[in-house]
Design brief:
Blueprint lengths: L3 E2 L13 E4 L6 E3 L1 H11 L6 H18 L12 H12 L17 E3 L3 H11 L2 E6 L5 H8 L7 E4 H4 L6 H11 L6 E5 L2 H10 L3 E4 L11 E2 L10 H5 L4
Parallel strand pairs: 1-9, 2-5, 2-7, 5-6, 7-8
Antiparallel strand pairs: 3-4
Helix pairs in contact: 1-2, 2-3
Length: 240
C-alpha cells in the first residue's frame, strides 16, 4: 500500500476561525446499512456481530475512497458488485450474488447521536456553520428529515453547483457565498482524498474523521484523525 504524506494542519489557534464547514455523509449522518446487511447474511445462514460488519463497511469505504476516488457518490450499479466483493473479503466470507434486495426496507440516512448537539453548541458559541457536500438531488431532503438544515448558515451541494470535491472551486464558491476567507474557515470531513486535499488547495484547514483510529487509512502519514465531531473542540483548541 502506497504511503501518502498528510498535508500539515496549521495551528488553528493562530488564525481565528469564523466558519466551520462540514461534509455530510459519515460526518454528520450515516446509513443504517449494517443492521440490514446483518439480516441479509442471516437469511443466507451467516451470523456475524454487528461490530464486525460495521468495521468491514468502514474498510470497504476507505478502500474505494483511496483506489476509486468519487465512485461511491455515483449510481450504485457502477460499483456495488465490486463493493460487495471487497466487503465480503473484509468479513472473511465467500462472495455471493445479491439476487434480491437486502431486506424489504431501504437503508435510511440517520443523524449521528452527537450531530445536532454539536452543531447547536457551535452556533451558540458564535461560529457560522455550513455544508460542502458531494451529493445528488436528495441532499436537502436528508438535511430536512434529520433536522440538520436548521443549524446551517450556507449549504453548498455538488449537484447544485456543478462542481465536486476535491475541486478547489467548490470550496472557493462556499467561502464567497459566506463572505469568509479560507483561512478563517475550518473543514471537517471523513474522506482524505476529497476533503483534506480539496480544502488544502485553497488554504483551508481540515480535520479528518476516522472512527477506527487509523484503520483503513494506514497509507496516510502523520495523520491524527478524530473519532467523530464530539472531539472537534479538543482537536483544534477552539474556545467554548
Amino acid at each position: 500500500m502506497k504511503e501518502i504524506q498528510l498535508l500539515p494542519l496549521k495551528e488553528c489557534c493562530t488564525i481565528k476561525k469564523k466558519y466551520i464547514w462540514f461534509d455530510l455523509g459519515y460526518t454528520l449522518v450515516y446509513l443504517n446499512r449494517e443492521e440490514l446487511y446483518q439480516q441479509m447474511l442471516k437469511n443466507h445462514g451467516i451470523t456475524l456481530p454487528l461490530e464486525d460488519i460495521a468495521l468491514a463497511y468502514h474498510l470497504a469505504d476507505k478502500y474505494f475512497m483511496r483506489e476509486h476516488p468519487g465512485l461511491l457518490g455515483k449510481k450504485r450499479e457502477l460499483f456495488m458488485h465490486d463493493y460487495h466483493h471487497i466487503l465480503h473479503s473484509y468479513l472473511g466470507i465467500a462472495p455471493m450474488e445479491e439476487t434480491q434486495p437486502i431486506t424489504n426496507k431501504k437503508p435510511e440516512w440517520r443523524v449521528f447521536p452527537e450531530t445536532l448537539s454539536i452543531l447547536k453548541q457551535l452556533k451558540n458559541t458564535g461560529y457560522q456553520v455550513g455544508l460542502i457536500s458531494n451529493w445528488n438531488n436528495t441532499a436537502r431532503e436528508v438535511l430536512q428529515q434529520t433536522g440538520i438544515i436548521h443549524y446551517l448558515d450556507h449549504v453548498v451541494i455538488s449537484s447544485e453547483v456543478g462542481i465536486e470535491k476535491p475541486d478547489e472551486r467548490i470550496f472557493q464558491h462556499a467561502c464567497q457565498q459566506a463572505g469568509v476567507s479560507p483561512e478563517e474557515s475550518l473543514y471537517v470531513g471523513d474522506n482524505y482524498y476529497d476533503d483534506v486535499i480539496g480544502s488544502h488547495k485553497v488554504g483551508m484547514d481540515c480535520v479528518l474523521i476516522n472512527p477506527y483510529e487509523r484503520k483503513g487509512i494506514e497509507e496516510l502519514k502523520n495523520v491524527d484523525p478524530i473519532a467523530n465531531i464530539k472531539d472537534l473542540f479538543q482537536k483544534v483548541h477552539m474556545p467554548v
